C-alpha cells in the first residue's frame, strides 16, 4: 500500500509541476498559495492514514518548492540567495522557467526582472543539474516484496498425487 501511494503521489507531483512549467497562466502568487494549501491537505491525509513513512510526501518536494518559489519576493540579491538555498529539488532550468513565466495577477505584484533571473543563474551555475526541464511522469519506482520465511519445513511438505508432479522427488 505504501509503495502504491508513493507512486501515485509522484505522478501527482510530476503532472502538476509539468503543467506549472508549461502554462504561463498558472505561474502566479495565488496559484502558489493554492498549491501549498492542496499539498498540505495531501500531507494531512497521509498522516491520517498513517502513511507518512511511505515516502509519498517526499515525492511532492519539487512541487512544494515550486509553490514556495511563486510566493517568495523576487527583487533583491538576498531574495535570489534565499530562492537558491530553498529550491534544492528543482533544477536550474525549472527555477528559471518558473521565474520567466511568472505572471502578476494584481497591481501590487511586479514581473520578475531579467537582472534578477541572471542573478539567480549566477548563484546556481555551480550546480550539476540534469538538463531536463519536465519530469518523467511515467517513471516507476521499483516494487519491493518483503521476504517472510515460512515456519513450515520442507521435510514436512506432502505433495498430493492429484497435482501430477511426479517429476518432483524428495531427496
From TrEMBL:
Dilute domain boundaries:
1-126
Q: Which PROSITE patterns match?
A: DILUTE
Identify the InterPro entries for this entry.
Answer: Dilute_dom, Vascular_dev_regulator
Q: Which residues cross the membrane?
A: none
| Molecular functions (GO terms) | GTPase binding
Query: What SMART domains does this protein map onto?
Result: DIL
* Highest taxon above the source species: Eukaryota
Any Pfam family from its record, for instance, is DIL
Recorded hits in PANTHER family, A to Z, give: DILUTE DOMAIN-CONTAINING PROTEIN (PTHR16027:SF6), DILUTE DOMAIN-CONTAINING PROTEIN YPR089W (PTHR16027)
Name recorded for this polypeptide: MYO5B protein
Source organism per UniProt: Sagittarius serpentarius (Secretary bird)
